[in-house]
Amino acid sequence: MRSPISPGPAAESTNPNPGILLLKLGGGIPALLGLLQGEMTEAAMAYVASRQLSQFIFAVAFFHSSEYALAAFFHGRSNVTLSSLLISKQYVVAMVCALLEYAIEILLFPRLKEYWWVSSIGLVMILIGELIRKAAVITAGRSFTHLIRKYHDDHHELITHGIYRFVRHPGYSGFFIWATGTQIMLCNPVCIIAFVVVVWRFFSTRIPYEEFFLRQFFGFQYVEYAKRVPSGLPFIR
Questions:
Q1: CB 53 within 8 A of CB 70
Q2: With 0-12 CB in 10 A as exposed, 13-18 as middle and 19+ as buried, what is 187?
Q3: pLDDT number for residue 175
Q4: Terminal Cα-to-Cα distance of the chain (whole angstroms)
Q5: For a disulfide at 162, which of 106, 139, 191, 220, Cβ 3.0-4.6 Å?
Q6: Which 3-state string (H, E, C) describes 147-191?
Q7: Which GO MF term does the entry hold, naming one (predicted)?
Q8: For the segment 61-103, what is each residue's pLDDT rounded down to a tens digit?
Q9: What is the rounded distance in angstroms from the CA atom of residue 135 to the CA atom of residue 163?
Q10: Residue ranges of the alpha helices (H) in 76-88?
Q11: DSSP code, position 87
């Protein structure tokens, strides 16, 4: 006859077997590690996205606000319109496409955005492009305008010193480097190609058109200057 306080079969079954516990724990470790790895990956991608997008937004905001501020400084606030922000419909479409590509790729191909060295090269290009363009604006002063001059005025002079000693159109070359750098920083392969092609084609038609008037304004002086100084953009003499 079994004692009232002696453990019965039900009580014995509640005592865990150490071997079974180890087996269960061992089976749960991979699942736990997988969960932790997934959470770490999500956190890493959130950091990547916040870093790259914040840099992109700051670069775009600084570029346009500084363009307007410099135009107002050299030409007077009353002579500057919102067009000096350099924001056109085509430009807005381009930037929206860049953000759409970034959103799609970070969802479907997140590892594509993890190439830090590529993103860092883009950031350096943004800084270099800004420096070149702002050096062009500051050096030219009142002679620098966002619209092509078709008529000569007293304040317009041919600038050949400073950064203009090395390239004829540093403002354009600076923007070309800056715009390409924004897409390299975002690791946007499609928009890198698209921005290079579209911006280059824009300047390939703008530069000859602008230089037609510059030759009329400054004659032989500009012809000689154009012979010895490159345009500043690839494959555009």
A1: no
A2: buried
A3: 98
A4: 109
A5: 139
A6: CCCCCCCCCCCCCCCHHHHCCCCHHHHHHHHHHHHHHHHCCCHHH
A7: protein C-terminal S-isoprenylcysteine carboxyl O-methyltransferase activity
A8: 999 999 999 999 999 999 898 888 999 999 999 999 999 999 9
A9: 7
A10: none
A11: -
Residue 173 to residues 102, 132, 178, 234, Cα–Cα distance (Å): 25, 8, 8, 9
- CB 213 within 8 Å of CB 149: yes
Residue pair 179/203 in contact by the 8 Å Cβ criterion: no
User: CA–CA separation, 134 vs 66, rounded Å?
Assistant: 9
| Digitized pLDDT (tens) for each residue of the chain, 237 residues in all | 455 555 555 544 556 666 555 455 555 566 555 555 555 556 666 788 899 999 999 999 999 999 999 999 999 999 898 888 999 999 999 999 999 999 999 999 999 999 999 999 999 999 999 999 999 999 999 999 999 999 888 778 999 999 999 999 999 999 999 999 999 999 999 999 999 999 999 999 999 999 999 999 999 999 999 999 999 999 998
Question: Residue 212 corresponds to which tokens in the numbers above?
Answer: 């037609």
- 38-47: which pairs have CB atoms within 8 A and are 24 or more residues apart? 41/110, 44/114, 45/106, 45/110, 45/113
Separation between Cα atoms, residue 35 and residue 138, nearest integer Å: 55
Residue 144: count other Cβ atoms within 10 Å of its Cβ.
19
Tokens 């606000």, located at residue? 65
The structure tokens listed for 112 are 């594509």
User: CB burial class (10 A; 0-12, 13-18, 19+) of residue 112?
Assistant: middle
